[in-house]
Fold this sequence. Notes:
336 residues; mainly alpha; 3-stranded mixed beta sheet; 60% helix; 4% strand
Amino acid sequence: MRPDTPAENVDHTAEAARLERTAGLYPEDAEALLLRAAAHLELSGDRPAAAALYDRLLASDVELESPYLVRALKASNLWEYGHEAEARAIIDGIRAAAPRDPAPWVIVGESLEAHDELEQAHETFTEAVRLLLTDVPEPPAAAHPLLFGRHRVRRMLGAAHDEWDALADTVHSLPVTLDELHDPKRVWSLGSENPAELEAEISRLRAEVGAYRTALSRPFPVAVLHWPADELTELLEAYPSLAAEYPSHEEHLAAIEAALRELASSGTPNLGIVPGTVPSYEAFAASEGTTPDDADLLPQYATTLAARGRALPWPPQRSAPCWCGSGRAYGECHGV
């Protein structure tokens, strides 16, 4: 998640420095933490420093989880402070590589759009939706921005609706329609002296900004700790006293789903699941100056993992793999 809080409300330079220090303490999370640090540096206006962080990640000996996302963010940042040729070269490389992750496609498409390269942006969004969403029964949430971005660019180009635009309409959930949100004429109404037109535009903008902030600025989730089967076996062999917390792996999985459903029914937003590992848990216990067999440490461990960006959002889409790792779709496993 990239922060979008205005610079006047947050010391982005200090936050970037804090995240860099945290990345040094938790090298296994360095990629996610340094990407957030680079985003803060961009917001602070120090784009060269952000570029240096992207280069640091790309030059690392550690294999990145999302190398094309890092490249896309680097290209977007470079273009913003005058390095257009290098940014275009990186963008061309990403498009040629055709990554299966929607995120780099979104960044590249929006970067082209922001610099009035509408035809190229349209080609990029279209390549992505064809690659990632053809014959997919239900578009994953991560791919929704591709559909919305393509719809928005096509409206600016004056293109007629097609089947992908219709799909974008079906996954759009705001009360303001996509056609309204993406209408090029909306900008003209901002110069109107008609109070009714201005009020209507303000309502539309609030809806759009609200959705954008929800997507980009979610707080840390309320996370429940999940032990995979082999990790739970190792945990209980090392610390038998924790068997009272985990009578069996099946009961552990059922308790996770039940707890999350209860939280959801009570109106708790932004729920998540964090997978634990025994070495990580032992290191956390040592950092807290206590022993791993202390059951009170478990929720603190889950909260710390969530704060480090390790939480997976719950619930998954029904067609997505179940969070438990069974390999079955969520709707056929714990989502029944």
